[in-house]
Specification:
Helices cover about 45% and strands about 15% of the residues. It has about 400 residues and is α+β, with helices and mostly antiparallel strands. A hairpin with a 2-residue loop joins strand 2 and strand 3.
């Protein structure tokens, strides 16, 4: 496993760091959360992603003909690390960049690639995921949203739920049942759906955080051109599994975890606990040390995967390990922050005495949802034990 970077890679790091220092947007303390769908906030986030892309720092490993740089995966890792250190905003188009984009590169037609990939990179078009349904969560293959092929169009009817970004998304990558008589894993197809199509209704779901980042999406005789089918008819489960692997890598990003832990350290150094900084309290120091060890272990696991990628080795169950470890760790980091804050940890964002703009109680609630989303921890443990360790079902 490689644990260091070459001289050329360190030179590249300095270039990236200099660019970020010059171009990093100023923080707007009064900005609305992205989940609100506020047009100003969405526009600002699109501008930031577009600027990063113009600098060549988005989806660097994608083929050049689709807007990438065909760069070494190490370079994208360096960019991600520097963005974390700079506490830069995230990218609004992550589902496109990390989920549907790689899926189209692998399974899409030439027309689909040229139509969608460039606009994913520039954030001109934002994507959402149409997988989960009210009765189909962990058992995703039991989905019931129906798509009937009539001539050159699919007629889609049904409902999706827990659809992140649907309130401002332009497109959805969607699983639909196209053969109701086939076994449940067989009769599924993978469609690209224009969210402006007649018959689509988006209803926000207000979470316990107070935000409405998730949505219900209803389809009432929505017409989707057959050319928007990815892969073969009724074989969408194979395509969907490619996207699920990308999703688990996204949810298991070490970038987000490192950002959260760095924020926890700043909080521990500035908040008082028993008359001194929380970082000086022996019990809390032990808690911080435990979390730091887990963050470092996750980072070295990422280095192992990076080395595998460089050497052309298959990823195996790495995505499930990433998802399991990081989502549970993120929740534990947020829990430690609430303990440091004490009674202040219960305050809402609009309180006059709120700490860190109310970030931590929101993170505590939101990260609990990520333990469930994208395949629960129990599902990931099954995948790791059965597919990775060869244990019986």
């Amino acid at each position: 496993m490689n644990l260091s970077f070459t001289a050329d890679q360190e030179t590249f790091r300095k270039q990236v760091r200099s660019w970020i220092k010059t171009n990093l947007p100023k923080k707007d303390t009064g900005a609305q959360p992205l989940e609100s769908g506020d047009p100003k906030r969405v526009r600002e986030m699109k501008d930031w992603q577009r600027k990063l892309h113009q600098a060549g720092y988005v989806a660097m490993g994608w083929p050049k003909e689709y807007g990438g740089r065909a760069a070494d995966v190490v370079e994208q890792t360096i960019v991600n690390e520097e963005l974390v250190l700079a506490r830069a905003p995230g990218l609004i188009g992550m589902m496109g960049i990390l989920m549907v984009g790689p899926t189209l590169i692998q399974h899409g037609t030439v027309e689909q690639k040229h139509r969608h990939l460039p606009k994913i990179l520039t954030a001109e078009e934002i994507w959402c995921q149409g997988y989960s349904e009210p009765g189909s969560g962990s058992d995703l293959a039991s989905l019931k949203t129906r798509a009937e092929l009539v001539g050159d169009e699919f007629i889609v009817n049904g409902q999706k739920v827990w659809t992140s970004n649907a309130q401002y998304a332009d497109w959805m990558f969607c699983l639909v049942r196209t053969d109701p008589t086939a076994p449940k894993h067989k009769g599924i197809s993978y469609l690209l759906v224009d969210m402006k199509s007649p018959g689509i209704t988006v209803r926000p779901l207000v979470q316990m955080t107070g935000d409405a980042g998730f949505n219900e999406v209803f389809f009432d005789n929505v017409r989707v051109p057959r050319r928007n089918l990815v892969g073969e008819l009724n074989l969408g489960w194979l395509v969907a599994n490619s996207t699920l692997a990308h999703e688990r890598n996204m949810l298991g990003s070490t970038t987000r975890t490192q950002q959260m832990f760095n924020g926890l350290l700043r909080l521990a150094q500035t908040r008082q606990r028993y008359g001194r900084p929380a970082a000086d309290d022996l019990v809390m120091r032990q808690r911080l040390a435990d979390l730091m060890i887990r963050v470092e272990a996750m980072k070295y696991h990422a280095f192992r995967q990076l080395t595998d990628s460089i050497r052309g080795r298959p990823p195996g169950i790495g995505a499930s390990v990433n998802k399991l470890v990081s989502t549970e760790l993120n929740h534990d980091i947020a829990a430690a922050a609430l303990e440091i804050m004490g009674s202040y940890g219960t305050l809402a964002r609009k309180s006059n005495h709120v700490v860190d703009r109310g970030t931590w109680p929101i993170e505590f609630m939101f990260t609990l949802g990520l333990v469930i989303g994208g395949g629960t921890s129990q599902i990931q443990k099954n995948i790791i034990s059965e597919r990775g360790l060869g244990m019986p079902r």
